[in-house]
């Protein structure tokens, strides 16, 4: 299989700072949610992506409104980047009427078609056939819009993964499959769930390219995504990008994650995508103390405003439990 | 007098007409392309509408439904074919968890206009995996609609209604009726509304509720009873979810006796639900216990002797009617 061509890209200082803002906002959002769960203010259903933010920022940055994303349960940041405002997102976690599902389900089971966001179920990998369907419509329309479909390495063992990627390969659909390989399917480590090291090689069985990259390097993720997007928009079909990463918290906030060692966690924390990017931006004189302070203040204000809004937003009424079942 | 079509031709005509009317309608499934489907339902469609709108898929029932759901989120109205209703179990998750819940969990901001066609039923020598009647699984899932036509007229009219409906509809087409049921069909824009039963025979002594291929032996049994002085009112449900409670109640007000006939196995089939609803809301109108004639709680066997022993027929239905009338 020919190697994927290196994609050149140039980001302005403003764009780099915007990426930085998103990294910080997504991290802060998840960290706040974690606290809100401990405080009993958010009931549960919180699956943080802390440690995995570079994947979201690197893949969502610069997407068109018409492009579709099919995020997984840890990708709250993807919804924010695709245009769901922080108040709505926080309301969703607070189960308020101002949330996407009006209190009917937590987290990321809601989508917004107008923003190009699909909301998956808890059945991991079930978003992938849907992504194929979305991509198929772009193919029918001969449009150059694309779909980005996210899944964990765990979901790559589900039948839907095979059915969707096979169809995408046969039909040469404009889809970028992003594997967030965070090493654990809940408690079970990768080596117990697959006999290969890289999920990326599974792409070969579907007739398209797969690459494994450092998922904690936002620019590496961005570069690989831009290459895959160019192929997809140009009618050259799907690509699988496996982003190696690690989730710092447990599977969900109630999971103490005793199945892994402190040393392993510490090693991955040393690869935290945010300080790495901070160092890069400082070295390039894109970021200084003042800009950092500005960004951190903006992040804090956004989160505070969202929490304030969500906690005082109206609760759903009992009749909402049985409405919106049929159009 | 309009033209007469077979049940199978009526389905095909509904598909073709809807595809001509609305470019957002397309069909997908196994062998539905140039081959025309395992039963020939989609014959000619590929020739008229081409590869993109008549999609031969891999053997991937879950993806077939998932792709349909994805396309529906961009305004398309896909009609997915399960080659046999028995295979719908492989697409079950996408139907019951993805499609059925979507509108609810999106806070009412999206619709899922998909149709899943499922050739069902026995008496065709199909054995365990080509004879099943899995409608009850879907009647048990809020958010879905379930239809089961018994005539060519309804086969066409209900399919057109299902395609135009904004909700996911599971359309059970009975294989035994494909070439045996013939009759006039609706023309032009006429549809058969979902949720409305049809009274096939008027009577004042016993109400018989049935659907699909059970209509034929039910009407035959009613004719026999008429010769014995018992007038049976025969209601064709046509839609199983939501079923036409009012039509059943109106009839019960005349007859005070109810028999439900289903080809599905007895335990927790639609007969159980109708019976429970009648007990709850019409108990004071009953002069006899609600009775059921159904498939025994077993699997559809291959041998015609064994299958014949299981299938309800005019004899078993007439016997139940006599018992009810005499109660």
Would you tell me the structural class of the helices and strands of chain B? Answer: alpha/beta
* Helix content percent band of chain B: 25-40%
How many discrete domains of chain A? 1
**Percentage of residues assigned to helices of chain A:** 40-55%
State the name of the first-level CATH class of chain A.
Alpha Beta
Low-confidence stretches of chain B: none
Q: Strand sequence of the main sheet of chain A, in spatial order?
A: 1-2-3-7-6
Q: What's the CATH topology name of chain A?
A: Rossmann fold
Helix/strand order of chain A: HHEHHHEHEEEHEHEHHH
Known CATH architecture of the largest domain in chain B: 3-Layer(aba) Sandwich
Distance between the termini of chain A: 47 Å
Biggest sheet statistics of chain A: 5 strands, parallel
Principal-axes geometry of chain B comes out as globular
Mean pLDDT across all residues of chain A, rounded?
Answer: 95
What does this structure look like?
The complex is a heterodimer of chains A (327) and B (327). Chain A is an alpha/beta fold and 327 residues long. Chain A has one domain (13-313): Thiamin diphosphate (ThDP)-binding fold, Pyr/PP domains (Rossmann fold, 3-Layer(aba) Sandwich). Helices cover 42% and strands 10% of the residues of chain A. In chain A, the strands form two sheets. Chain A has a five-stranded parallel β-sheet, with helices on both faces. In chain A, α2 runs parallel beside α8 (218-233). Chain A is globular. The N and C termini of chain A lie far apart (47 Å). Chain B has 327 residues and is an alpha/beta fold. Chain B has two domains: 4-184, Rossmann fold; 198-326, Rossmann fold. Helices cover 37% and strands 20% of the residues of chain B. Chain B has helices at 7-21, 45-49, 61-72, 92-105, 135-139, 152-164, 215-227, 245-255, 270-282, 304-310, 314-326; strands at 4-6, 25-29, 54-56, 77-81, 115-120, 145-147, 169-174, 182-184, 198-201, 206-210, 232-236, 239-241, 258-265, 291-295. In chain B, strands 3-2-4-5-7-6-12 form a seven-stranded mixed β-sheet, with helices on both faces. The model of chain B has no long low-confidence stretch (mean pLDDT 97).
